[in-house]
Amino acid sequence: MLLTAAALAVLIALLPLGYLLIRVGEAGADRVAAELLTARVGELAARSLGLAAVVTAACTVLGVGTAFLVTRTDLPASRMFSVLAALPLAVPTYIAGFTWISTVDGFAGFWASALVLVLCCYPYMFLPVAATLHRADPAQEDVAQSLGHHPWRTFRSVTLPQLRPAVAGGALLVALYVLSDFGAVALLRTDTFTRAVFTALELGFDRTGALVLSTVLVALTTLLLAGESLTRRRSARYAPVGSGARRPPVRIGLGPWRWPVTLLLGSVSALALGVPALNLTRRLVAGVSRPGSLVEMAWAAGNSLTVSAAGAVLTMLLALPIGLLVARAPGPLAATVDRLGYLTHALPGVVIGLSLVFFGIHVVYPLYQTRWLLMLAYAALFLPLAVASVGAAAAQAPPVLDDVARSLGRSPLRAFTSVTAPLVAPGIAAGTALVFLTCMKELPATLLLRPTGMDTLATELWTHTTVAAYAAAAPYAALLVLLSAIPAWFLAARSGAIGGDR
Predict the structure, then answer these.
(1) Cα–Cα distance, 323 to 395 (Å, whole number)
(2) Is the separation of the CB atoms in 11 and 337 below 8 Å?
(3) Could you tell me the CA-to-CA distances from 241 to 114, 139, 322 in Å, in that order?
(4) Sequence-distant (≥ 6) Cβ neighbours of residue 33 within 8 angstroms
(5) Where in the chain is the domain with CATH 1.10.3720.10?
(6) Could you tell me if 456 and 304 are in contact, meaning their C-beta atoms sit under 8 angstroms apart?
(7) Which one of 83, 119, 291, 476 has the fewest beta carbons within 10 angstroms of its own beta carbon?
(8) HEC readout, 385-427
(9) In the prediction, which pLDDT does 444 show?
């Protein structure tokens, strides 16, 4: 039953990919080969992979380093830095891009895109690593140090292997985000696959060619998933030593590096949050003073909140059976179902949107121009984020408790609702918050699938930005960041870094 529900959920999420393959198949092998075997495709692939590699490497160094400093050292104001490290999740890349353009003359190109994406994406690495460090049993580190290992050698030989699954998962999310990002690379004029696909579709002269280009993103995603799977097989997992209550780890003294490191983390936060905040504040007053702007903002905010909440709920409903299957019945079949959900995660939102427009017009017309199709697009795009949260929480819920409940005569459904569900609830809440946050920021699919007359904060922001009305766009950007900061703070608190032992 669980496998059937999981398979049905992933099939729903794969609807856009099915449309993509059907349309590419209709083009014929000769047309596909002509589109793919070109020097431009090679350049786009090299640039997209290069950008993903640079951003992922930088996010790994920055995210792991920040997580270690706030959880395992005597860094001053570590709680404040934990919050600051999570808040960039609330800043959409297109907002960060246009604030940097407005602040620095000539800010554009590959390295400008890499900088903006690193500053926006490193929380995807920081949050899981901080959570792992907070929950890790320090007993093994104590054993290593009792054998004479220096603290940094203990970190390399004992702590780092425990972080490997979290680092691999965070790196995968960052790389997939970079491959699918459109806002930052478009504003900063960096030619990647997503920009090329969007440009071809927007101009309307080569829709088939754009869809063929999208299949390259699917191939690149498959390669990334295969690499992450290899890392999982090679990873070492360390069970807690002994039983009883876990004690907090001993914090490492930074010594003379304490204040230089504090200054470094402060500088990162200033670049990630300070530049957007100062730029938006400078333009905010002029934008709010426009006649009718407050009413428009209230309607847009209401639409953003309701459609994002509905999309997060639908995504979590689809993710539950997949996450439980991965945690409770691991194996090739569960891994395949889990990995299939990632294939649509790397597709540009515009491709997801177009596929569901086709699906709505030709298959489920009553749903066309309704919020249901937009919610389905969110589920297809962000399903892996919810599955990862549910799977991690379910893996920590001992299956034996469920077996005991069923041996006492409870039905499978009642055993799940009374035993498993309460244990998985924190993971469900974290996954729902992460998907809600991401839905609030999503732009291309929302532009295509929103019902006529329904504007969100993201679409209003984009509409004003495209005509260079930056003052009018600033209030929508500021409100979007403010509302997105609430789930971002919740995720930081869930990681344990904020309320951790001090």
Answers:
(1) 9
(2) no
(3) 41, 6, 30
(4) none
(5) 1-14+288-501, 38-239+254-287
(6) yes
(7) 291
(8) HHHHHHHHHHHCCCHHHHHHHHHCCCCHHHHHHHHHHHHHHHH
(9) 80
- Return the DSSP state at 88: G
Locus of tokens 């599955």: 387
How is residue 490 written in tokens? Answer: 């919740």
> Contact 68/133 with Cβ under 8 angstroms?
yes
Number of Cβ within 10 Å of residue 466's Cβ equals 9
Predicted local confidence at residue 55, as pLDDT: 96
Residue 85 β-bridge partners: none
Could you confirm whether domain 38-239+254-287 is CATH 1.20.1530.20?
Answer: no
* Pair of tokens at residue 334: 């569960």
Say how far apart CA 340 and CA 378 lie, in whole Å.
Answer: 16
Low-confidence ranges of the chain (pLDDT < 70): 137-138, 145, 151, 202-206, 231-249, 286-292, 346, 396-400, 494-502
What is the reported pLDDT for 243? 47
Q: Which residue has the tokens 């999420």?
A: 13
Which CATH architecture does the domain made up of 1-14+288-501 adopt? Orthogonal Bundle (1.10)
* Residue 502, pLDDT score: 46
Amino acid identity for residue 142 in this structure: D
Task: Read off φ and ψ for residue 31, nearest 5 degrees.
Answer: -65, -40
Tokens of 395: 């893996």
Contact 488, 84 (CB under 8 A): no
